[in-house]
Specification:
Strand 4, helix 7 and strand 5 form a beta-alpha-beta unit. With 242 residues, the chain is α/β, with parallel strands linked by helices. The termini are close together. The chain has 11 helices and 9 strands. Helix 4 runs parallel beside helix 6, helix 7 packs parallel to helix 8 and helix 10 packs antiparallel against helix 11.
Length: 242
């Protein structure tokens, strides 16, 4: 299993060397160090960044213009792995499909389409038949509730039976990672440790959370770098053992 670390822009770019990285187009296009980060990463996944853009004040979005600019960015940097515009809840599946077609036509590559529960099982079956790599969304937003996570076993098995890889968007439940056989997942969890005064430690098989001693002050930047590096160790373990 490949665990992609998201939000890497917050640490120095040299830390991406040999690491699986997921980043948003919204941030990549503004990051002057992006070419270095892209070249240094072991493998790179690009998110469309549409939701981030809207939450940052871009509420009135010309999605067709946005997806054309995204395609140009993908072509310029020769990016191979990128998600479709994951905006079902905003524009509906038909518009998502139209934008997907534009993206794939302009790049000449298949994107990674994102399945949501609202699309239904038949749509999932069509996705795994038509694509070599898909994703499941709605995990972070609880569209798929925790009690429903056992469905991942059947969905993952169905994808694999068709020779299709499957990505869990934002899925980093540590027990679930050992249980469900995702091909890839991504996480920003490493970021939250220093924000909540916690240190992450890889113990050889999983990540442990260590509270800072009472009365001590956490150095946020040092904690951030430590937490990133500990999750990189877990990333390396997951690749060979999960």
């Amino acid at each position: 299993m490949k665990l992609f670390l998201a939000g890497e822009r917050t640490v120095k770019n040299e830390y991406s060397n040999g690491v699986y990285i997921l980043e948003s187009y919204y941030y990549c296009k503004k990051n002057k160090h992006f070419p270095t980060m892209l070249k240094a990463s072991k493998e790179f996944l690009l998110d469309s960044g549409a939701y981030t853009y809207m939450s940052g004040g871009g509420a009135k979005v010309n999605f067709e213009k946005y997806v054309c600019e995204l395609a140009e960015f993908i072509n310029h940097y020769k990016i191979n792995l990128f998600f479709e515009m994951d905006i079902d809840q905003l524009v509906g599946i038909k518009e998502v499909e139209r934008l997907r077609t534009i993206l794939e036509t302009r790049t000449g590559k298949q994107c990674i389409p994102v399945w949501h529960k609202s699309r239904g099982l038949d749509y999932f079956k069509k996705m795994v038949a038509d694509y070599k790599y898909i994703a499941i969304g709605g995990i972070v937003t609880k569209e798929i509730k925790g009690s429903e996570h056992p469905i991942f076993t059947n969905l993952i098995n169905l994808a694999h039976s068709k020779g299709c890889k499957i990505h869990g968007l934002g899925y980093t439940n540590l027990k679930g990672l050992a249980k469900y056989h995702w091909d890839t997942v991504d996480s920003t969890t490493w970021l939250y440790g220093n924000k909540s005064g916690k240190i992450f430690k890889f113990d050889g098989t999983t990540i442990k959370i260590i509270d800072k001693p009472k009365g001590t002050r956490l150095h946020s930047k040092a904690a951030e770098i430590n937490n990133f590096n500990e999750w990189v160790k877990f990333q390396q373990y997951a690749e060979h053992n999960l």
